[in-house]
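Aim 2, interim progress. The first record below pairs a target sequence with its C-alpha cells.
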Amino acid sequence: MSPSTPSSSTKERKKYNELLNSVKLTEKISDIEIEEKLKKLRRLIVLYGIPTSTPNLRPLVWKLLLKVHDLDSHQYLKLVSKGRSSVADKIRNDASRTLKSDVEFQRIVGESKLIRLLDAFAWRTEEKSDGESLYVQGMNVLAAPFLYVQPTELEAFNCFSRFIELTCPLYVLPTLEGVHRGLRLVDKCLQIVDNKLYSHLRRHNLTAEIYAFPCLCRFLLTNTSDKFTAVLTLSACTPPLDQVLCLWDFLLAFGPHMNVLCVIAQVLLMRDDLLSSSSPMKLLRMFPPLDAQPIISIAVTLVRDIPEDVSVVANKYLGIPLTTLRYTMIWLDIVLTHGKTIRM
C-alpha cells in the first residue's frame, strides 16, 4: 500500500462513492445484498485504504461496516440525562488521560464529550445487566476514535456501543478475559510465523503478556509510569492518531481479531533490532510510532500462515462468530492468491 497520487485518489473516491450511493439509494435491500456490498467495501479498504481527501467518507464507511443505520436520539438523551454513572470516578480518571498530548483530538473531542458518552454507555449496560456496569479501563481509548471520526456524539455513541457489544464482547469483561486470550494468541501466532524471533524473546523471558500488554504509551498517558496495552486498545494507544484511524479502517472491515496479527506485524517490523539486542525488552517497552500501511500489509500476508486450529481458538478470543473468522481468512487468501496484494 502506498500513498495515492491525486489521480488515483480521485478514482478511489469515485469507487467508494458509487458503492455508498448504491446503498443509500436502495430503499429495500436484502441481507444478502448488504453482505455483497460489504464484501466490495472490504476489498476497497484492503487494497486502497479510505481516501482522506473526502472528510465525510470514513464516518459513512465505519457506520456501514458496523451496520449502524437507525440513530435513536431520544434513547441517548435519556441516558445522558441520568448524569453521573456508578463508575463515574473511573471514567473521569481515564478520560483525563486519553490522548492528552494530541492537540487535534483535544480540540475536536475534548474530555467532556468522552465522559458524557462513557457515562451513557455505563447506564446502558447497567440497564441490560441487572444494575452492573460493564465499563472497564480501556474503553475510553476505544471510544476516542469514534468521537473523533463521527460528526455527532449520537453517531459516535451508536458506533461505539455496537462495536463493543457485538464485535468484541469478551474483550471488555472486567476480567479482561478476551484480552488475555488474545495475548496468548499473539505468542502462538508469532511462534508459527517466526519461530526464531519467538525463541529469542522467550530466552529473555518475554511473552506477549509482558511486552504487548503493559507497553508504556507516551501518547495515551501523561504519567509515563502508567501502563496500557496495544492489544486491549486495538493499537489506539500508539501514535500518531491519523495512522490509528487507517489501521482501524482495516480492523472494522475484517474484525478486531485481526489485531493479533497487527500486533505481531509491529513486532516483526522491529525484528532485526530485536534479534541483535541482548535486552529486547528495552526496545519493546514502547512500540515505534504507528505506520498503518506496512502493518496491514504484513498482517494480511500472515493470514496464510495461520492454521485452521488456531483460527478456531481465535473464535474464543473476542467471542465473535467462527464464520466471521473463516470468512476473513478465506477471503484475504483469495485476494492474495489472485495477485491483488496490498501495494507496498
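The second target in this work package is listed in the same format:
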Amino acid sequence: MTEETSKTPVMPYTEGVEVHDKAEVVMNNFLSAANVEAVYGKPVQSENFTIIPAAEVLSVTGFGFGTGGGAGPGEQQEQNMGGGSGGGGGGRVLSRPVAVVVISADGVEIKPVVDITKIVLGALTAFGFMLTMRRRMRRGRIKEA
C-alpha cells in the first residue's frame, strides 16, 4: 500500500440512499414471505385429529443500482456536469401445497399432495425429448449409410 492511497479518505456511499432504503424494504418483504408461517399453515382441528397444511415457497428477487456521472469516451467534459443515480428491481414469490400433516391419537402422518397436472406435463416433456432424440439418432444413421 502506498502513502498516497493510505491518506485518501474513504467516503461513505451517500448518493441514491433513498433508492437503497426502498430496495431494502422491498427485499425484507420478499424475505418475510419465506418463513415458517408461509410454509406451514394454520392448524385446523376436528374432533379426533388436527390437520396442518404444508407448502413449498420460492422467493426470487433481483436488484441493480448505479451511480455516476461524467463524460464518456471521446466526449467533452463540462464544468458543472451533474452525477446520476438509479436503481431497479423485481421479484416474485411462488407457493404451492406439497403435503398435509395429520395429527391424531394414532400418531403423526404426512400425506403428500399429488399435483397431477405437474406429473402429466413432466411426462409429456420427457416423451417429447425422447422422441426428438430418437429422430436425430435415426437421421444420423441414414446419413452414414
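Residues 1-16 have pLDDT under 50 and may be disordered. This observation will shape the mutagenesis plan for the next reporting period.
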